[in-house]
Request: fold
Amino acid sequence: MNAGELREVLQLQNPPAIDDGSGGQTGDWTTVARPRAKVLALRGDEAAQAAIATMTVQYRVTLRRRAIVTGQRLLWSTGGMSWALDVRAVLPQTDRAWTVLLCEGRLA
Reply:
């Protein structure tokens, strides 16, 4: 992979960190970086929940080496739509120049 393939600008965000008093978190997501990345859709599923159709898509996101953990998310705007890409796994790489993520995307 070469740096010229990093065509998308994403927002790397940390989850809310304020305890809501009942075991959950409240607050807003915080943007900590705006990395360039290559985003590749792997597959899509549509599920009906409570009579509302939702679409989730699996993405493989490649970016320059960066410390990212599950629980963080990436925001991606493309084609007039905004996607929240939840980081599900950080894939092991032999090439230390890149970080590869498996994300689950949903409309933001």
Notes: Strands lie at 8-9, 11-14, 18-19, 25-26, 30-33, 36-49, 52-64, 73-78, 81-91, 98-107. The longest strand covers residues 36-49.
